[in-house]
Each structure stands twice: as C-alpha cells, then as structure tokens.
Design goal:
This protein is of the alpha/beta class and 373 residues long. The chain folds into 2 domains: 126 residues, Aspartate Aminotransferase, domain 1 (Alpha-Beta Complex); 224 residues, 3-Layer(aba) Sandwich (Aspartate Aminotransferase, domain 2). It contains 15 helices and 13 strands. Strands 2-8-7-6-5-3-4 form a 7-stranded mixed β-sheet, with helices on both faces. The chain has a 4-stranded antiparallel β-sheet with strand order 9-10-13-12, with helices on one face. A two-stranded parallel ribbon has the order 1-11. Helix 3 packs parallel to helix 12 and helix 13 packs across helix 15. The longest helix is centred in the last third of the chain and has 20 residues. The chain starts with a helix and ends with a helix. The mean pLDDT is 95. This is Threonine aldolase.
C-alpha cells in the first residue's frame, strides 16, 4: 500500500468515526448507507426504462425550479456540458467558447471540448476571479457561446454581483453570443444574488446543474433550457452514450436532495460565513505567520483556506487531529499556485450547523498543535 493510499484510508476512517465535522466527506458513506437512503415514495412504481418514470419526474421538477421549458437528465455534468456547448456551436455557427481558464472543462475534462466536440476556447481573463463585462466585450475574436461557471470553484467558489452578472450576459448578447451557465453549484447562489433560482437561471440560454455536489445525490446532472434545445440535447445524449437503461437510484437520490437539502442551503451559507469569520479570527491570533480565507466572506457554503506550509504536512496534521480528538476541521490539502503555500476547501452542511465560534477556535488550536515542524 502506498503512503497516499494509506492516507486516503485514514481520512475516510477518521471522517466516519468523527464526533464533530463541518461536512461529511464524499467517501465517508458505505454502500449499505447509500442504499438505505433510496426509499421510493411509491415502491410499486414501475422501474424507469431509458429515462421515463422517476427520471422524467426529476426532469420536470428541475425545469420547474429553474423556470425553463424543459430539462434532460445526464449521467454526468461533463457529458451535459459537452452536449450543451456542442448544440450551441451548431446553432450559432461558431465553435468558439469563451470561458475562464480555471473552469471545469479546461481543468477536469481531459480536453474533451476540442478532442471530442471539435470546439475551441478563448479566455476573457486569466485572473482568479469572474470575468468582467468589459473583458467579454473586448475579446479580440468572435465567439458563439459565453460559459460562466457559477460559482467559480477554483478561485474560491466566487460569484459576481447580480449587477455584474447582468452586465456579463448583456456583453455576450451584444457580441451575438448565447450564454450557458455551468451551474453545478448554482443551487446555493440564491443567498449571494438575493434572487430566486428561476430569476438567476432566466439570464442564461441554458443551465447545467449537478445533483451530488450540493444536494447530496448519488451522481448525475441536468441540462435545462428551451424545449427545442433539450430535444436536440437528448439526441446528442444518446450519441454520447448517456441513454442509460435504468437510472432510478440517481433520480431518487436527486429528488430527495431537492426535497431535503435544497431548502437548507441558505442556512449552510449563513453558517459558512460564521465559520469563516471565526477561523479568520483564530488564525489572526495564532503563531501562523500568514493565512488567507478566500473569499473573506464566503459567497456560498464553500470557501478556501490558504496556509504557508506543505500540503502533506497540513493533511497529516488534519488526519491526526481527527484521529486523536474526534473533530474534523480540515481534510486534504493541495499545493497552491504560490511556492510553499497550500490550499484546502471547507464545506459547511447540516453536520456543521451547530459549530460555534468557540468550537472553531478549539478545533484550529488542536490542528496547529499537531502541525509538526
């Protein structure tokens, strides 16, 4: 067993045994626990076949929530976005997609936009923030689609202001381009924007949403938009291998997430802001020579913490803290773009709602005590 494999097992074991955590880890649940959460409202309902039944009900619910004419279920967000951007390239006659270089298709999809779909990308900005309307307006070449990742995860789960978002969409329209939202985590953006989901999604021509990143579903995604776009997307979904025979486990867990987690997300955002403030206060009074909470006031229920130590050292300290105290504050750390600095993501869900500022201070103290030189 490699050191990394051993560390991964320790992270999972510590997470499962923890008495206090801000959010459960993605690998903490067992198969039995996940299956136990799949109770159907009507166990005698016929199983879905190629997207009917419970899958169709999920699609209707998503379209209703986002205020779109239709929505299509996809086995993955990667496939949903590939199809959306390919459809728009055909409709606009322009294969160029304007997006941030830190967006999901650029970092986590193996170059599929160009390799699989024959598209090309341009970047309005390389700064670790959302692009501005001026940058979109000043792009040197025509583009068919502007894709906005809301929130932009790699930059700290950042969102523009509502006025900035309206201006971005307007700048794209002025360039005769369509607008697609990568809304994998759009569900929790309502607090920051101060607008309902329907109004936010209404700015775009198409929206992708995830069922597991915020809603706790097993997997899967949806693409929402006009009836004609979604009809075309369903054709491409089949071509891409996404016409799966049965998908009721994913659909049931997604519907459960929409019923159970979606109403709670505003409380998670509010608590994340309390945790971030307490953590910043605790770090400011600690021996740590430098730190960054990014953003200082979280836009969603997720944010970044930057510290001036190696990633392995920080991860080990976090695991030891969990193993020895039963409290999980930090999980895995990664090297930041700055040498000698590492970054981690904190997520606050139901498990973290009862954390007080004092709890955060004590957890950080226990963590720093185990940060061996």
């Amino acid at each position: 067993m490699t050191n990394d494999e051993d560390l991964a097992k320790r992270l999972v074991a510590a997470g499962r045994a923890a008495e206090r955590t801000l959010s459960s880890g993605g690998r903490d649940a067992t198969v039995g626990e996940l299956l136990a959460g799949l109770a159907a409202p009507d166990p005698d309902e016929p199983a879905d076949v190629y997207g009917d039944g419970v899958v169709a009900r999920l699609e209707e619910r998503v379209a209703q929530l986002l205020g779109t004419q239709d929505a299509a279920f996809f086995p993955s967000g990667t496939m949903a976005q590939q199809v959306a951007l390919r459809c728009w390239a055909g409709r606009t006659g322009n294969p160029v997609v304007a997006l941030h270089p830190a967006s999901h298709p650029e970092l986590w999809e193996g170059g599929a936009l160009s390799v699989v779909s024959g598209l090309r990308t341009v970047h309005p900005t390389k700064e670790p923030r959302q692009p501005s309307a001026e940058e979109v307006a000043d792009l040197a070449e025509p583009f068919g689609t502007l894709m906005l990742e809301l929130p932009l995860r790699e930059a700290g789960f950042l969102l523009p202001t509502w006025e900035e978002l309206e201006a971005l969409v307007g700048a794209a329209r002025d360039r005769d381009a369509v607008v697609h939202f990568d809304g994998a985590r759009l569900w929790e953006s309502t607090v920051h924007f101060g607008r309902p989901l329907e109004e936010i999604a209404g700015l775009a021509d198409s929206v992708y949403v995830s069922f597991y990143k915020s809603l706790g579903g097993l997997s899967g995604a949806a693409l929402a938009g006009s009836s004609s776009l979604i009809a075309e997307a369903r054709v491409w979904r089949h071509r891409y291998g996404g016409q799966v025979f049965r998908q009721f486990p994913q659909a049931l867990s997604a519907l459960d997430g929409l019923e159970r987690e979606l109403p709670r997300l505003p409380s998670y955002v509010a608590q994340a802001r309390e945790v971030a403030a307490a953590l910043g206060e605790a770090l400011a009074g600690s021996p740590v020579p430098w730190f960054r909470i990014n953003p200082e006031t979280p836009h969603t229920h997720q944010f970044q913490v930057w510290l001036p130590y190696g990633a392995d050292r920080l991860t080990e300290a976090g695991v030891r803290t969990a193993e020895e105290t039963g409290t999980v504050l930090f999980r895995r750390w990664s090297p930041a773009p700055v040498p000698g600095v590492s970054v981690t993501e904190l997520t606050v869900t139901a498990a973290g709602l009862d954390w007080s500022a004092q709890d955060v201070h004590e957890a950080l103290k226990a963590f720093l005590t185990r940060l061996d030189p």
